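This entry is listed below:
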Amino acid sequence: MIGALLLRAVVPEEAWRGVSLGATLLGDVGVAQAVAIEAVLTFFLVWVIFAVAVDPEGTFRAVAGLPIGLTVALDIMMGGPLTGASMNPARSLGPAVAGGFWNDHWVYWVGPVAGGVLAAVLYDLLVLRRRRPEPTLEEAP
């Protein structure tokens, strides 16, 4: 938010107004489609973060930034023209506050939060819990 406010302060309005100060805005998609797109983009990003950075047995732990960065790049290429590919409510909030661009702003909260929660729950259920050993009768409370 501070970065967007600083840009607004130092860049002439005619320069930032045309690009909405970097605010994420919907392209030629409806709000339901936008929510779904943002949810899918965020799902993939959070899944990759879990797989390479959070998971103690993550394969690419030493170079986790590479697959995460590639996922962000692919998400932007796919979703950028459609929704702006926010993938993070904080990324959308700064330019919205600084420039007053609130059209369909809720999309950039609902979609990423839903996608992120779904990815976290599914990764835990499908990957992490399968690795946990079953408690034996002696270990059971």
Remarks:
- Helices lie at 2-10, 13-17, 31-54, 65-83, 89-99, 107-131.
- The CA atoms of residues 41 and 84 lie 11 Å apart.
